[in-house]
Amino acid sequence: MSFASDLEILIRARYPILYIHTSEEARVLPVVQSVATRRNKKVYEWSFSTGLIPGGASIQSQKGRSTATKDPIAALDQVLEQVEPAIFVFKDFHPFLAKCNKSTNMAPIRKLRDVAVHLKNSFKTIILISPLLEIPAELEKEVTVLDFPLPTKEDLSELLDRIIDDLRALKKIELELTPVSRDRLIQAALGLTWSEAENVFAKIIVQDGRLSSEDVHAVFAEKQQIIRKNGLLEYYATDDSFDRVGGLAVLKDWLRMRADAFTPEARAFGLPAPRGVLLLGVQGCGKSLCAKAVANTWQMPLLRFDMGRMFGSLVGSSEENVRKAIAVAESVAPAILWVDEIDKAFAGSQGGGASDGGTTARVFSTFLTWLSEKTAPVFVVATANDISHLPAELLRKGRLDEIFFVDLPTDEERFEIVRVHIQRRGRDVSQFDLPALVAASSGFSGAEIQEAINSALYEAFYAKEELATRHVLSALNQTVPLARTMEEQITRLRAWAEGRARNASVARAAGVESSRRKVEL
Description:
Layout: H1 3-12, E1 17-21, H2 25-38, E2 42-47, E3 51-54, H3 72-81, E4 86-91, H4 102-119, E5 124-130, E6 143-147, H5 153-168, E7 174-176, H6 179-189, H7 194-208, E8 210-212, H8 216-230, E9 233-236, H9 249-257, H10 264-269, E10 276-281, H11 287-298, E11 302-305, H12 307-310, H13 317-331, E12 335-339, H14 342-345, H15 359-373, E13 378-384, E14 402-406, H16 411-424, H17 434-440, H18 446-462, H19 469-477, H20 482-485, H21 487-497, E15 502-503
Parallel strand pairs: 1-5, 1-6, 2-4, 4-5, 7-8, 10-13, 10-14, 11-12, 12-13, 14-15
Antiparallel strand pairs: 2-3, 9-11
Helix pairs in contact: 3-4, 5-7, 6-8, 13-15, 16-17, 16-18, 17-19, 18-19
């Protein structure tokens, strides 16, 4: 059922006060007007700057009108005095309902309650339109909340065609869009409001006079603005790809296989949208790099979910911050939500709550509920290092699609890692003894190999020499790898992952049990 149908049914059922939660007034008002026309009702609009005026009245026609109804109490009195069937649209009424100003807002809150009783016995309806949801306890039983949907792919396609036609009349436009690239561009714009999409499409065309598949990045830049305004999530612009991720062949194949799983063709095939993945393993072995690479490969914005920002000082504000962050992620979907070191973020969720009053447990519960029930195409990439802090609820199937264990790189993977990092620094790999570097880096993580090559670069630069194998070998020999200093923890991590998580590097043979010895630690 469409939003217009839902709205009309509630109006016909004589719900007294409807609260439409949206920032898109311009899109809501025509819907309200069409419903009013079908029901033979007048429409009146109210805002703090105009007072109560007939719906659709132009700025010129508003001149000379009485400003007495700018006061919300006077405007609500006018609602009571109106005899004919009508719909009254109140724009941005939320400041007069805010709980933080309860002492000054008691008059409009009380008046709205009185009006609600009257409206139940009339053919009048009040519609509140606001980007913020503010409902005081006194009005909870009288107000019905509706969420106005963002533009669909069909809406955005129609908008893009209209903008192209409008601008073609002014200048020549080069269209370099295939059906696939056009679909990708519109897919990237999902999550934007009508106004935001209109602005970014017009900006792309005006900027270079053409429209191509490369303009997807300009759409992501517009989404970056939305994320910055919120302040709870971090937008990561990344150019990392799977070519820069050494090893982890099983994990990379698993992610590549789901690259097109967010398309309408996948829905028509019966595929559900991928939910997410948990990457568990040794520090510095490429978990975070994979999160960045998958965003670039899938052409989706990457949002970092920083739990430190979620915890506010006021009781209940932490849970509200999580809900707001989730709402922002869903508003720019399809997107990748990267929850780094989730084990540290929810370390206290299993305790009694004595240390933080149960805030961590409540925040964790809010996040878990969203993981289970989310319908928006937000793919979660969670990373963790310490299994002892991972709550069992997070590991249940249905919240995330798969758990991968990222171990220290094998000889073959270290060969690839060394090659990638030497190439990234503009050196010819054939000039280096890669087998010797692989042997010297036994037990090293990818991050430790990278830092060793960086140290070798410093040494060569200081000596006024070109980087050579001996510089890298020297740096590797001077490094004590984490596998040596944290051997017990890594052994425990491997033992836990055996049988509980898929190995990100080695495919599990079908029907073959692992021959690794099981021990109790």
